[in-house]
Amino acid sequence: MKPGRRDFQNNIGSAGILYRVHAVKQIFDRKISEHEVTEIITHGKVIEEYQDDTPYPSYLLLGEGNDRPLHVVMATIM
Question: Residue 28 and residue 24: Cα distance in Å, rounded?
């Protein structure tokens, strides 16, 4: 069974976050904090769903961090 759209947002604390090398580079270059990423994952708006992405379904989220709009792309491994 595929996870519901909000399942990852409700369970991020217990699941944890694994960052890809590309994401770490973007976070460093753009001075984005881990807290901002976590806030967007838990409270951001899902603006696109990619259920057929491989190896895992992924989501494009929009949120605000330090008074600036931020996008987060994440995949679920549930």
Answer: 6
